[in-house]
Amino acid sequence: MTAVEFTNQVQEISVTLRPAAMTLTRDADDARDLVQETLLKALLNRDKFKAGTNMKAWLYTIMRNTFINNYNKITKRSTKIDSTDYFQYYTTDDSFITYNQATATFMMADINRAIAGLNEDFRKPFVMYYIGYKYLEIADQLQIPIGTVKNRIHIARKELKKYLKIYSTN
């Protein structure tokens, strides 16, 4: 097979490589790069292709292997951890503290008290929304405009946030 015939066949098949590259990479730019790298490797290694065999399968194999090699390089590069930073992070971060059931009980009691402390006009739409009602359903059931429902839920959230700021993580 001449170099021109080989190049023409590679060009014809390259169109079918793009969807497979997209499936592998899940990113349009990365897929284009993968196809380009595959075609470059195929053209550079033309002498390794055996005439009469399936060129499409050969190109797909090059593409798959290129993807796997690139993926392995990326994961190896990103998994190196400096153990001193690792231990320092996990020993000083409070988010890894395990709380017992008593803490959750106190929190729930505070949340329930805060909700009970809301004005009835705000509490009712908020509780309905919390248990799963949609804005339109709440408006129909309470016979108030949907904008009022949204406003009351918003105000209820602000009040609860103010009352429960001791539990804020920020």
Automatic annotation (TrEMBL):
<protein>
    <submittedName>
        <fullName>RNA polymerase sigma factor</fullName>
    </submittedName>
</protein>
<dbReference type="InterPro" id="IPR039425">
    <property type="entry name" value="RNA_pol_sigma-70-like"/>
</dbReference>
<keyword id="KW-0731">Sigma factor</keyword>
<dbReference type="Pfam" id="PF04542">
    <property type="entry name" value="Sigma70_r2"/>
</dbReference>
<dbReference type="InterPro" id="IPR014284">
    <property type="entry name" value="RNA_pol_sigma-70_dom"/>
</dbReference>
<dbReference type="InterPro" id="IPR007627">
    <property type="entry name" value="RNA_pol_sigma70_r2"/>
</dbReference>
<dbReference type="InterPro" id="IPR013249">
    <property type="entry name" value="RNA_pol_sigma70_r4_t2"/>
</dbReference>
<dbReference type="InterPro" id="IPR013325">
    <property type="entry name" value="RNA_pol_sigma_r2"/>
</dbReference>
<feature type="domain" description="RNA polymerase sigma-70 region 2">
    <location>
        <begin position="20"/>
        <end position="73"/>
    </location>
</feature>
<dbReference type="Pfam" id="PF08281">
    <property type="entry name" value="Sigma70_r4_2"/>
</dbReference>
<dbReference type="InterPro" id="IPR013324">
    <property type="entry name" value="RNA_pol_sigma_r3/r4-like"/>
</dbReference>
<comment type="similarity">
    <text>Belongs to the sigma-70 factor family. ECF subfamily.</text>
</comment>
<feature type="domain" description="RNA polymerase sigma factor 70 region 4 type 2">
    <location>
        <begin position="110"/>
        <end position="160"/>
    </location>
</feature>
<keyword id="KW-0805">Transcription regulation</keyword>
<keyword id="KW-0804">Transcription</keyword>
<dbReference type="InterPro" id="IPR036388">
    <property type="entry name" value="WH-like_DNA-bd_sf"/>
</dbReference>
